[in-house]
Design brief:
CATH topology: Methylamine Dehydrogenase, Chain H
CATH superfamily: YVTN repeat-like/Quinoprotein amine dehydrogenase
CATH architecture: 7 Propeller
Shape: globular
Strand order of the largest sheet: 3-2-1-24
Largest sheet: 4 strands, antiparallel
Number of strands: 24
Oligomer: single chain
Number of helices: 2
CATH class: Mainly Beta
Number of domains: 1
Helix content: under 10%
Structural class: mainly beta
Radius of gyration: 22 Å
Strand content: 35-45%
Length: 326
Amino acid sequence: MLALAVLVAVITIQCSKSGGGDPPENGGDSTVNNPPKTVRQIVLADQSVNRVAIADVDSNKVVWEWLPEKSNVGVNDVKWFVNMSDAKPVYNNKYILANASTGGVALIRIADKKTVFYAYAGNGNVHSAEVLPDGNIVIAASTGNYLMLFKTDTTAYPFSGYTKKITVADAHNVVWDKKRQLLFTASKNKLYAFTYNFNCAAPDLTLKDSTTLPASGSHDLFPLYGKDSLWLTTSNKIWAINVSTKAVTEQSDLPRVKSVSSGPNEKYPAILLQSIDGDKQWYNDKVIDMKGNTVYQLNGLKAYKGRWLLPCSFSYDSDSVVHLCK
């Protein structure tokens, strides 16, 4: 009995030293004494080496990158991914939906950097992409003046199946509204709302209505974190659109803002990518906040857009599994 008591005491001491397994989720000494560190990471569309990167704000380091030539993108298809123009966290931050000006669109699994879907969306300067609820994908092409739907297929590389174009002049952005089951795109001085037919074999969009915006030159459209509102950037200002009331309010008079993204609290300020020169240097080596303070900077970076690596409840359910429309 004495030997058993000693053994129990030793095990108890060892477990106490090791923390006894995973820390409690809802409090407890280990959480109080060692509060979890907030991980603040930004997904970047980086044109310096045509990559998608994840940068850690606090360490000021790139901690992950996807390069098309080092992935399962075909050798002859790498040229589709020159000048990355957007990168969005999707599927509960397990994947990134990325696109490039030269026509490439790709769904990338963060865990192993596998390109689970990629396609060519034409030479219309692809600026943005969005995942629809059934797994199909839509892109916006600015100089091509179109939205383009893809029936997503993760079994063929590159994708060569059904596509559908919808004319939208100067199309720069696409955002799915989960609550209203609408696709929004801001073009010039209009916000357009489209319904989706949820037809797996032949996905299509139908214009429902439009709202006149207070300025032209619409560029980025992205949900405000935790709000029923959308960020909008135009040539010379940043706005917030209340989707319920359609009220549009000015948030900043910063010009040439290519992207805006916000988070749940002051640790995640609204971050911007502001081009250095609208015509020649449409990228930047730093991410700033609304006051112009540097949030992240890396010499040699040519970031076009930057998004906090956070879930987007405005557009998506908390599902980490890729949907395949069948």
